[in-house]
User: Which sequence fits this backbone?
């Protein structure tokens, strides 16, 4: 596999860091982009990559990050939109501020990063877009109405982009984790009075009877980023122990 410049948003997180490690092991130069530049730096040092400070909700931050990478390692050839955020709460207890944050992190961020990297990919006649969606966006998830809407929107966005850019040698695909043991999930559980019950219920719904681990998710991303997936686009792959099978 060719050494390509891979830009991973949320790259210092649980799933994001596992993706960075496995993409680096596959021979890519990994740009670890995260709102915490110190955490990003630690992962970048581990994988021999580059750390970039990135707030996916801030257009100026996104523009500066993509421009800085182009001036350094080179134009982004593979974009992995992994940054995400949520809290468990009934829909009627959510408000406008919560709604904006969930939609901006989980949907707005991937949209603006995609817009920024596509011109260089189009010029090169090659590119990979891999969006980390969620099974919540496919089948819904209790106490995650806005998050489910954002991830469902991300799946639809990815399919549309896949149609528009296919003739330029660019693919766009979704990876949908199910319940996954990450620091974000642990913090969500800790902040919710119903968190333990919801996670236990979700885990019981998984035929394999366990939560996923970040290292379970990353191989799907490595595949979609590879030349082996050159004829695969607009697809949504659940890596969820069989939680969804459609």
Assistant:
């Amino acid at each position: 596999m060719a050494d390509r410049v891979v830009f991973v948003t949320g790259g210092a997180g649980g799933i994001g860091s596992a993706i960075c490690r496995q993409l680096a092991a596959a021979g890519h130069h990994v740009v670890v982009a995260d709102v915490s530049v110190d955490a990003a730096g630690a992962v970048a040092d581990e994988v021999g990559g580059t750390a970039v400070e990135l707030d996916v909700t801030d257009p100026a931050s996104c523009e500066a990050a993509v421009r800085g990478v182009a001036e350094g390692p080179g134009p982004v050839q593979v974009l992995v939109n992994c940054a995400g955020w949520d809290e468990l709460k009934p829909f009627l207890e959510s408000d406008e501020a919560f709604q904006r944050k969930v939609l901006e992190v989980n949907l707005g961020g991937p949209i603006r990063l995609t817009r920024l990297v596509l011109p260089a990919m189009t010029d090169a006649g090659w590119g990979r877009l891999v969006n980390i969606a969620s099974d919540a966006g496919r089948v819904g998830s209790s106490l995650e109405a806005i998050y489910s809407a954002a991830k469902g929107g991300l799946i639809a966005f990815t399919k549309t982009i896949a149609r528009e850019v296919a003739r330029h040698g660019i693919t766009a695909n979704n990876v949908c984790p199910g319940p996954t043991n990450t620091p974000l999930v642990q913090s969500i559980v800790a902040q919710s009075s119903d968190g333990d019950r919801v996670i236990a219920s979700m885990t019981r719904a998984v035929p394999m009877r366990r939560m996923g681990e970040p290292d379970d998710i990353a191989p799907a991303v490595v595949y979609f980023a590879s030349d082996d997936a050159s004829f695969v686009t607009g697809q949504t792959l659940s890596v969820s122990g069989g939680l969804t099978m459609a």
User: Anything to note?
Assistant: The beta strands are 5-9, 29-34, 50-53, 78-81, 127-132, 170-177, 236-239.
